[in-house]
Amino acid sequence: MKKIFLSALAFAALFLTEGWAFASLSEEQMYSIWQNNGGIDGIQVFRYGVVDWTGRSVTSEGKAPLLSSAPHDRLLAKRGALADARRNLLLLLYEMKFGLPERLQAIEVTGEVVEGNVDYSGIKEGMYLVEVTVSLERFLSESLIFSSSVR
Question: What pTM does this model have?
Answer without folding.
Answer: 0.81
